[in-house]
Amino acid sequence: MKRPTETIRVTDVSKILVTEIVADNGQQLRAIRVWGSAGAEGLPILGLQAAADTSDAIKITTPEIKF
Q: If you average pLDDT over every residue of the chain, what do you get?
């Protein structure tokens, strides 16, 4: 069975913040916050919290940078 997926597109992004992983009620938690055209002075326009049993499940890996 194929699982449904969701894609959210946010335009006019001015800042993205990814928090460190912290313990929260027996799980590991990380937040991703996105600010829009109002900039960092306003409230984030999108907030995502990812929680899992292990921190490995919510690690974020970026592509290797080559110069």
A: 89
Q: Which contacts qualify for 46-55: CB closer than 8 Å, 24 or more apart?
A: 46/8, 46/10, 51/24, 51/27, 52/27, 52/28, 53/27, 53/28, 54/28, 55/21, 55/28
The answer to whether the pTM exceeds 0.90 is no
How far CA 16 is from CA of 8, 36, 37, in Å, comes to: 14, 9, 12
Q: How far apart are CA 22 and CA 52, in angstroms?
A: 11
Cα–Cα distances in angstroms (integers) from residue 30 to residues 3, 5, 12, 43, 46, in the given order = 23, 20, 23, 18, 14
